[in-house]
């Protein structure tokens, strides 16, 4: 049977033009967007690759140096520290968000009056601009006036105030904690959206078969949540490893570069010292993560759209 | 097995409480700091959870009369509004083509938009800064108005494409048969039906643009041209002295527009936040 769509197509292609009018219409609709993205995303990305292979400064002559920047960086102590910081920061924050996000989704899936408002409340950290929220956290971690210290001292867990953002270990813990704070809503709400699509009958059947709640979670919830888990995870790995505002406001990469990550080091080098070649190379060390994540996501997407 | 609804609700509230506390505490703490008098704010002998000396508006007063805060707020509103309108318009056209039309290279176009959506701003701020200098846009609000759509349009296109595919084709096809053009069909038939999707895309775009940090930080150096996110973070801190009261007040007031939108359009935000994952 011929659908109406196809009838329309036959009519439009009956003019004998090689390029179907619909293709012309479509591309004229797409043109502004494609041009915009070519100029403001694709070109800058290519330009970043170009810069990373030069010794470009803010002004002065530019020489091509090939991959020398990338190799020399690997022999620089600050860079290798930054690279490992970025990996650990991403791993720790994403793992924590994953575990807590699942817990949050299960909590939010419960039925009770006013649950809509509870959902709204836990989503607030996503809405508040990160850089501004970080000011509140800086105040909460202040070496003298920290409310966290006050509480810990009053319950007797510490004897005197501790410098959260001035001690390497604690600063690393603090930036991960704060990243979890701002990223948790995204995980929680997406897992919740995934949870509610799981048919209730599956749980009932599992219960009839004698499965306890832990078994139901492992055998029903987790497997059926896998597509959502994968998408959120891939997206979050990119977003967390390229995070900037959290570190920039909280620690500026300190103390002694122990919380320095690729984006903050690139900013420091590019803007403060004007060493654009190395700064571009530093930020491009994020590229493999982006490339792999994008590749997998595009494949996942194609499966859903059945191309 | 069967629990009473009251007990179930009690369990729900108890388990939700730590998450709600974690999420909201920093904001409550901002509010407290912004209303306390300095003598109490910096008194280590005081219980920080109490307000004994009474509240004061002096921090807000300082913020609005002695700093460029009102300008920053205006700049942010202008940039976020203009880029939202622009981005949603561009995304509407693109999404309509991707969702509805059959054309050469349709797959390539969809994949392209999706890939650009994933490129983080931290990878692009350096080359874009040079590009803005080249166009003589550095240190103007135009630099932000020009660059923000690059991350807003892919997202909005993505969301609207998904939304358009949920609208039945029959309606617009009868319009086409009746002699409507594609643009006419889009304008008169599809747009009214897609309103919830458009609102979601606009709210999301506005929130992203309003919260943007690294471009605003890199492109703009003049105090009066800063947006709230960079102005409050960079310019309110003078040397080593932190005006904590005003700083917290500023961060809070600056967050209000998006928090307000969020509380008014909660369901739209939830729909937007889950747009990517639920499909995947």
Automatic annotation (TrEMBL), chain A:
Matching Gene3D superfamilies: MetI-like
Localization recorded for this chain is: Cell membrane
PROSITE patterns, sorted: ABC_TM1
The record describes its membrane topology as: Multi-pass membrane protein
Q: Which regions span the lipid bilayer? A: 29-50, 87-109, 121-141, 147-166, 173-193, 228-250
Where the record annotates domain ABC transmembrane type-1, the positions are 83-297
The UniProt entry's GO CC annotations, sorted and at most eight, read:
plasma membrane
Keywords attached to this Swiss-Prot or TrEMBL record, sorted alphabetically, are: Cell membrane, Membrane, Transmembrane, Transmembrane helix, Transport
Q: Which Pfam families match?
A: BPD_transp_1 (PF00528)
**Which BP terms from GO are recorded?**
transmembrane transport
Major localization listed first in the record, in broad terms: membrane
Family of this protein: Belongs to the binding-protein-dependent transport system permease family.
Please give the name of this protein. Answer: Sugar ABC transporter permease
Species of origin reads Candidatus Segetimicrobium genomatis
